[in-house]
Amino acid sequence: MAATEATDPVPGEAPVGLVLVSHSAQLAEGAADLARAMAGEEVRIVAAGGMAPPETALGTDAVRVAAAIEEAWSERGVLVLMDLGSALLSAEMALELLPEGHRKRVLLSAAPLVEGAVAAAVASRLGEPIERVASEATSSLDAKRAQVGGPSEASAAPADEPGPVLPGVETRIAVDIPLGLHARPAARLIRATAGLNAQVLAGNATTGSAMVTARSLNALAGLQVREGHELLVTASGPDAQKAIDALRALAARRFDEPAVPRDGPPATAPAPPTARPLPPALPPTGLEGELRGVPASAGIAIGTLQFLEEADLTASDAEAGDPAKELQALELAVTAARRDLEQLRDQTRTRAGSYEAEIVDADLLFLEDPELLEPTRAAITDRRLTAARAWSEVSLRLGESWERLEDPTMRLRAADLAGVSRRVLHRLLGRPAPVLRRRGILVARDLAPTDTAALDPARVMGIATAGGGPTSHSAILARALGIPAVVGLGDALLAMAPGQSALLDGGRGTLILDPAAALVRRARAQAREEQRRAAHAAAAAHQPAVTRDGVVIEVAANIGGAEEASRAVEAGADGVGLLRTEFLFMEAESLPGEEAQERIYSEIATRLEGRPLTIRTLDVGADKPLPYLRSVHEDNPALGLRGIRLGLAQPEVLIAQLRAVVATARRSPVRVMFPMVSSAGEVDAARALLTEAAGSEPLSLEVGVMVEIPSAALSAAQLAERVDFFSLGTNDLSQYTLAADRGNAEVATLADAFHPATLRLIAATVRAARARGRWVGVCGELAGQIEAVPLLIGLGVRELSVAVPAVARIKEAVRAADSGACVRLARRALRLADGSAVRGLISGASGRATIAPRHGSPAPSRRASTRSSATTPHG
Ligand code: PEP
Ligand code: MG
């Protein structure tokens, strides 16, 4: 528990006020008298006991509590102490009745009523800030405990240890993520305590900000928490402990931010497979008619300028007839907008990926945000505004406060709010959604991420905006959707005529109006070449991937849900090499039972139409948390109880999953694989559970393990005696081999799957597998990198499982390879010193036969090769 410095009260500012809520009016009055006797009259202590009328009835009343809070009001805040049961409920309801500005400074305390009131009154009289007053109240039983016996509150939570935090007290959380508490980590913070019965407040301890509700994205943004800042969090209520634990666990996982933030400009952000940069086609600068902006998504677009036609969303300022009807209209519009956004989020997950879907998911929080909804409701009831007018005013005001934030990345989030706000206004005013009438380069002042996510790449050739930035959510989504984009072109863009021809270079950040014919020819030639390659790969996507010399490589997909299974089939995947089952259940509140799991696995298998489905058992822990299975803080979660370790520690969970897998395998081709295996004993234990799950019926599925820990690679001979196949998880394998946290942006590049040390472990795994006649696949990100294909083939890998959008081009890369040349390449790579030497070797070889492109030539006929037929460097 961190101490908060006492500060002198500002002259004229009343000390922290106290409200005592009890089921009995007499008890509340008595406790208030006692506290006044100790602290004097300066502290406003207001009793809110019993129900009205009759005064003698036992119970609590939210309206009474709200009135008492107003009576005890001080700019320093009000602490509410409660006795039992519904007192907390009434106090929480009372908060809802308060004006927004006041609510932020009210803290509900879990302290005992009488002792807490006295201790709090004394601390308040001394001019302590509200957090300190609250913490004094919570520790108020210590003296009694010391005398009567039993642990003291203070000794239960030593100051510097991350032990349990008691209800009603504070904790501090270091925010060490690159962009600070930006929209998505803030959204995760809100979601981490959603559903808990706790009032959670947060403040920026580094800047000494006010405490705000940790349920509001808008309020959290106002804290301006940057990297290196410390967050002060207080929780009160029955689930205060759980709330604090959940937040600490989230912080320990670095707010679940990905290893390399994709918010960076395109130069630093990893380009998703669909958004491969084209080489710049244009001369550097100074062309006539050239507008220079900021590169946001690489690629060239040649077409006409098309303005997004947006309906007039001005809300009338006429007084509303019936506030009740307006309130209802607001609820309906918000619900409809929420439904739209949920649909868009799910589509985005399929079209762009899970990370991008989270952008839309974070926007959904605006629709639940008390900072937005409550003032809107108040404006409807108090000022009799129409719902549209009230919503428009409040969201505009909040948008302005986002724009005033110091952090430029946070400022860009104003566009997120504007997009959500417009969606609700469309509903309220009954106006149509914005449309792009013709195919072309979309021009807009700015685009909300939710607008970008909904764009159809077949219609939108490129995006040009006057405002925005490369780290805006729109830019991230444009990159993920593979739409070239330039942002920040300035207001001059908006003066252009619709239909004017233009050439947009997303890699360079330029828009050339009425480009010269030679320039267009050059850009077109490059774009055509790129398209031809993509089309060629796509046309052959449903053919097997066979090397020039006849080695068959299965190119499968990594998926996290049923929708993605269908996309995998459409993309030409030969099967699913990795179903991350933990992704299926991330949004659930608890793990679905065996039957529900079987339903979803079967649905995925059905969508695969007979192609093999590799189901990985839950890989929970470290970068893939599932709070309801495990929310315990670990100092080193990557080295902690995760993957199969957690499965064996909670066998009832693993066995339920295995029963569902076995049942699915009775009808469809299914393989099962265990994650994070470090030694043979774990495989034996997991297989014993599998046998138990199968019961008396014979098992008809292949069993494999992920090789993603160096000890597994080095024990591959022993593991191969126990399983049918290995799948190399190169993401974790490189993190553990190079001792570089894949979630830590500062060292993430060290976790290099191309490092010869990682490659040697792959080679050792393949060697041991082949000695026992087992096959080896790769399902880590390395498999989806074109440059890695010849290397992996040369190392003897026979299945590459990759992200869905990468399937076609990886198949194409296989077809361009010659396995003999690949083996020679791999042999040389194994002797090199580091990852960059390996990359150098590959790029040198790419001009030679190893991966010489062979566009246009027909795929060779599939020879009688099998996954284990090619020579390896050791074969
Ligand atoms: C890996 O570690 O390479 C892997 C595929 O598993 P995940 O990324 O799910 O940890
Ligand atoms: Mg892994």
Which key terms come to mind for this protein?
binds phosphoenolpyruvate; alpha/beta; eight-stranded parallel β-barrel; binds magnesium ion
Outline the structure in words.
42% of the residues lie in helices and 14% in strands. The protein is α/β, with parallel strands linked by helices and 875 residues long. It has an 8-stranded mixed β-sheet with strand order 9-16-15-11-12-13-14-10. An 8-stranded parallel barrel has the order 18-19-20-21-22-23-24-25, surrounded by 6 helices. The relative contact order is 0.07. Residues 1-9, 150-167, 260-285 and 849-872 have low confidence and may be disordered. Residues 578, 580, 619, 708, 729-732, 779-780 line the site of phosphoenolpyruvate.
**Helix fraction?**
40-55%
On the 0-100 scale, what is the average pLDDT? 83
Helices, by number, come to 34
Strand content: 5-15%
Through-space gap between termini: 61 Å
Question: What structural class do helix, strand and pairing data support?
Answer: alpha/beta
Alpha-carbon Rg, integer? 31 Å
* Ligand species: phosphoenolpyruvate, magnesium ion
- Total strand count, please? 25
Uncertain runs are 1-9, 150-167, 260-285, 849-872
Largest sheet, in brief, is: 8 strands, mixed
